[in-house]
Amino acid sequence: MAEVHHMRHGSNAGQPITRRDGVLKVTGAARYAADNHPQGMLYAVIAAARIARGRVAALDVAAAQAHPGVVEVMTAANRPPLAVHPDDKSVPFSFRMDLLQDDRVRYAGQPVAVVIAETLEAATEGAALLAPRYRAEPVEVTLDAPGAFVTEVVGVGVPGEQHYGDLAAGLAAAARRIEATYETPTQFHNAMEPHGVVASWDGDALSLDMPTQGFALTQMRLAALFGIRAEDIHIRSPFIGGGFGSKLLSGPQVLGVLAARLIGRPVKLVLTRAQMYGPVTHRAPTRQTLRLGAAPDGALTAVHHHVRTVTSRFDDFLEPAAGVSHTLYAAPAIATTYEALRLDIGTPGFMRAPGEASGSLALEGAIDELAAACGMDPLEFRLRNYAEVEPISGKPFSSKALRECYAQGAARFGWSGRPLTSRSLRDADGKLVGWGLGTATFPALMFQAEARAVIRRDGTGVVETGAHDMGQGAWTAFAQIAAESLGLDVGQVEFRSGSSDLPNAGIAGGSAHTATVGSAIQAAGEQAVARLAELAVADPRSPLFGADNIGVVARDGRLVRWDDGSRSESFAEILDRAGLEMVEGRGSAAADADAAERYAMHAHGAVFAEVKVDPELGQIRVTRLVGAFAAGRIINPRLVKSQYYGGMIWGVSFALHERATLDRRTGRVMNADLAEYHMPVNADIPSVEAILVDEEDPHVNALGVKGVGEIGITGSAGAVANAVWHATGVRVRRFPIAMEELLG
Amino acid sequence: MNRFDYVRPRTVAEAVAAGAEPGSAFLAAGTNLLDLMKIGVARPARLVDLNHLPGLAAIEHAPDGGVRIGAQVRNADLAYDPDFARRFPAVAEALLSGASAQLRNAATVGGNLLQRTRCAYFQDTASSCNKREPGSGCDARDGENRLHAVLGWSEACIATHPSDFCVPLAAFGAVVEIEGPAGRREVPLQDFHLLPGKTPERETVLAPGELIVALRLPAEAAAFAAHSRYAKLRERTSYAFAVVSAAAGLRMQGGRIAAARLALGGVAAKPWRTEAAEAALLGAEPGADAFRRAAELALAEARPSGENEFKIELARRIAVRALTLAAAGTPDRLPALPASPFAPIPGGLHG
């Protein structure tokens, strides 16, 4: 692990220490998967389909083979056999893969061959020389395609359709009603680090350097595919350049493993940026219709959130966009319904706040519209409909400091002066000014994790768990929790992670990694301390002898009596006298089923946005963003703020920038690069602030931690869109908002 | 990327000779060419590297106020040359509104003129494109064409020229100095780029082997320095090509317009200078009415080439904006957000 170079504000949980691996990253010393070059390694490059539906009629394998440096071309004809079909989904969270099983093309960008060569350049040119010829079939890639079907299940087996109360009666009783249709575009994963793998086989043992958000699931899937034992697969993933839900195990990475199998040498396969627009999941487009009703006082009488979205022809993932309506606003009648299309696209999947991001954009827009229709301030309207219990289930919240989020965010932003009427604020330059609000929400989830903690004879600690740092700062936060649990300074704890041979830490997803793994670390540390305490209190030579009824606490590398701080002994002294090299603790964490049954568990927040709009040109600038979030206990405020900033900026991107342009005739993504697939640059984000609102939650997990990774994107896009309306009086319901919509 | 020969000429004459051979491409910074080679759009048999030619990287200010810019001058070096920015502020502003800082540090003046279009169908080798493969058709015509041309396009091609730099160059009468197998010649920038017609693969007047060696801006261009702006609409504040843009220059005399320059970007296969609009401004009082009339004239022949009708009105409005900003006076320092409608005017106006 990284050396600790900077320690500014103390070291343990709750302190805003800088990333322990920050120096490694900014100096380029951090070794990412693609930085590995085992002896004898070859380069593999994917040839990707340029049609979205049909068959590969011919590949010029001879031309590729003849290119200097090319060693082998892997196609459906010679790809090594697999133990199960690539469509096998017996491992949880699996998606069907394209592993050269036949000549069928199911989406543009699907791998159709892999060229293996001595150099990256030769492999790249070899892939071009394959010049596939296709038998193309007509494609459907838009939300307007025919063949929609009703579905009750969305996401990964989540019940999407839900009904609570009498919707028709609620709408009929409303004094104000709105019906509005919002449309969100296809978005693609653009983590800085593309998906890749460096794979080496030794008999049936497989060694991998690859970014992954879940070691165990990746091992299980690879074991199933190759008919080998999961424990014979060793994966190193010490650093990940962004995951956002796309980096469990992707088909292209398996192709790299297959290439190494075929050729009998280590192989590196890394996707190009353009190749990330196809086989590694994406966020599906949605068309969401909100029907809302309100009583004269602004109280919601009904919420109907209907979602039309898409999946691939061959697998299922439907953006669960209506889920936010289950939890956000109190209403006597709530209905969420879905219809879906199968299109000639790669299978959509998890992409930061899947469902909540696009769903909250539509819901927050519709709520804003209804507030305006009721003549109410958007914040007042939201408070009027504040959910004291989770609306769809009637369960109490395990904790919910959303009211404080609204209050602190509004105060910081200066919301109270906001005029109700749109197009009524201007700045000194004559630009239109608008203020908008969006409520942020994300479930507080728990998966399963294990950890091991050791106190060594020299008094230092070691904590191990096979966790994942995708850039969010997990190595630092986990080390802080480890240090806290062991009663050591973080500088005295060696934190080992990022490798599959360590205790199973589950997946880094669902904003649950800190909560889950942190709880396991805490338990492991506590057990190690308890073992040490057993040694001390049972030993007549220890100043802690006989303290069992009063107990001891670990602090600063010592065990100290609760009732008498003067009686203490260092870890080293205890181990030394006991003649032990170390004591070890093991911990695990999982959802508390009982608590989950009794409570609704969510993080919340409120995002306030100011935009300026050029009245003649329609150009928009987000001049201020203030988000206030309550997510339980905060392990490291600096890192958490970074997560919120990143999410809020993605919200700006969602509202104003990001859109994949699919050619409707061919299904190809026409802007598959970072020059043309726009996301904000620094100059687009002049001011972003995140407020950490206190929240104690005794129910979510042992640490009281909720997730912070995804919530920032929710609410933010809606806040920006609502601010654009407030500035201009134009309610744009199709995203990203284009300047021509505002020309008037 | 295909395998190619690489030659490094030591003189302009050697470069011209090498460049005249079939399959040759000149390599300056390569910020565009190498990208196109990586995606298979450009597959030159031979790269003729210009980076070691002597004498092409100077900015020479003439006593009369004109300037001669070597083709190898980097975009950032030109924009930050204090004398250049003072005399030709709209050109500097356009340069700084283009690409990213990293690209501007590398990209050259000569290369900028020869940028290829960003049309996605040109860049996608699986699509039909008359520019990339003459006679194959134009998939942009019925495709994703929201940002395509509204002026000067043809059924064969609706692509736009992406350069910001060229827009004020066209407005202010820049001249391109060319060395070729047949000797030296000069072409006004306004005539340098070709409209697509039936031969969209021919983008400029350059013949094989012809090499841009310098650009000149005449002394009269500097006469607009006090009222000279570039305005650009884009989908993010930097690192995005223009949806539409405009360069405007005014020479004021007794409160009236004594001379006007106006060119549009992002609307056609070339920077679009409109002399009719310029003429209409002569003698007028600067103001919304006169500027709107000029803008109407500038876009008089515009027609949508697809789902881009909005660009016509947007181009009128960016023309009005550029003229309005120019009339207000050039800021004495380049704005921190160059060419943005949100650029605050720093400090005072150009003396």
Automatic annotation (TrEMBL), chain A:
It comes from the Bacteria. Its EC number is 1.17.1.4. This is Xanthine dehydrogenase YagR molybdenum-binding subunit. Signal peptide: none annotated. Keywords: Oxidoreductase. GO terms for molecular function: iron ion binding; xanthine dehydrogenase activity. PANTHER family: DEHYDROGENASE, XANTHINE DEHYDROGENASE. Residues 27-138 form the Aldehyde oxidase/xanthine dehydrogenase a/b hammerhead domain. Gene3D superfamilies: Aldehyde oxidase/xanthine dehydrogenase, a/b hammerhead (3.90.1170.50), Aldehyde oxidase/xanthine dehydrogenase, molybdopterin binding domain (3.30.365.10).
UniProtKB/TrEMBL annotation, chain B:
It comes from Muricoccus pecuniae. GO terms for molecular function: FAD binding; xanthine dehydrogenase activity. It comes from the Bacteria. Keywords: FAD, Flavoprotein, Oxidoreductase. Residues 1-222 form the FAD-binding PCMH-type domain. The keyword Oxidoreductase applies. Gene3D superfamilies: 3.30.465.10, CO dehydrogenase flavoprotein, C-terminal domain (3.30.390.50), Uridine Diphospho-n-acetylenolpyruvylglucosamine Reductase, domain 2 (3.30.43.10). The keyword Oxidoreductase applies. It is an enzyme of class 1 (oxidoreductase). This is Xanthine dehydrogenase YagS FAD-binding subunit. InterPro entries: CO_DH_flav_C (IPR005107), CO_DH_flav_C_dom_sf (IPR036683), Diverse_Substr_Oxidored (IPR051312), FAD-bd_PCMH (IPR016166), FAD-bd_PCMH-like_sf (IPR036318), FAD-bd_PCMH_sub1 (IPR016167), FAD-bd_PCMH_sub2 (IPR016169), Mopterin_DH_FAD-bd (IPR002346). PROSITE patterns: FAD_PCMH. Its EC number is 1.17.1.4.
